[in-house]
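re: ur question from earlier - yeah i can do the single chain one, its not a big deal. heres the input i used so u can compare w yours
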Amino acid sequence: MRGRSTIFTMFALLLLPTSGLLQADDLRERLNDANGIQTDLWVYNDIPSAMEEARRLNKPLFVTFRCVPCKDCAAFDADVANGNDRVKALAKKKFVSVRQVEMKGVDLSLFQFDHDLNWAGMFINADGVVYARYGTQSAEGSDAYNSIDGLINTMNRVLELHADYPNNKQELAGKHGTKPPSTALEMPGLKNPAKYAQETTRSNCIHCHNIHDAEHQHALDTGTYSPELLWKYPLPDNIGLKIDRTSGVQVSEVVADSAVAASGIKVGEDIVRMNGQRMTSIADMQWVLHHLPNTETHVTIECSESGTHEVALTAGWKKNDFSWRGSMWNAPPRLQVWLPEITGDALTKLGLPKTDSALEARWINKEGRGGQQAFADGLREKDIIIAAAGEPIRMDSRQFASHLKLKYKVGEQLPLTILRDGKKIELKITFVE
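and the output i got, formated as tokens:
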């Protein structure tokens, strides 16, 4: 019996990874994840198994979060996942590496980052201590801050932290969030949870930005919503500190007349800690700044040469261009109209100055309350919006949408000047959602 039991146990152990591989292959196929093919390197969409392996091998965990259907960051994702030999060598030898392609079962008390990113990396110890975050986007573009060299710099800093762990546990404590354990499906503000609970497909995937969408909705439901919620994860640029994007920690510029201008921080030195937390990347700095209030406050910055500085921040310091954020679109108020920008010869034909722009009502969502109301208030597809509240349109579609989020509330009216068949028409669109 003992021999048969041993054979049975070995057989069962062989079946488990095979089953896991089959499930990964099935999910990879359903998502059409062309970059998720390095099965000898990446644990596919299974963080708990990877954490067990990291604990067994005493290696740090490297988890990449990738929204497969999203086009932004696709090139960087391909380079990290199956293209760059330096990343592959480091990730395979020194880390237990995970490719996470859905947010359904992810523990949101541990894996907290800027969920508007289309690619993000987190580095943790198997006991749940967070070492680092990597991945930054802005209105400049999805990959303006991300690079292979920058990622490798952060990975090497993580290895240094891991080698010194747990002696450095105190300077890592603030990198862990304070939320209770939960998953996206448990978030009270998540819309259509029954749909998302079904088997994951490209049309049924909980995108990272859906986490922020749910946070916004919960704030609306509880009466705590403010447009300031859209000023998430501000760059260190917001306080006048420009960081070399490849280094991730080296000061490239101290902006004149900024919060840090009089601090004594020097160009060329490294940011070692912010509010006591060890810095490995710009994303680490954003994590610290994100958790500060948008009122008068201060941040403690420790530098490699000039020492420690207390930097005072004035009210409103978080304000930034959030027009690139996917979670912006579901924040109120929602016009529910697709408004691509008109440029070049098409703009000239309208007889508008070159300094102006225009937006075409290419599609009105008549299934949504906002689109229904816009139609009821007179807006039609192919209408050309040339002014809002009497001011010429001098912004693209995303900037216009972000402008509306900051300037208007549900229940208020948006005055629009449109061109229809060459004639100017004045409309007032009521925001209903």
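The longest strand covers residues 413-420. not sure if urs matches, ping me
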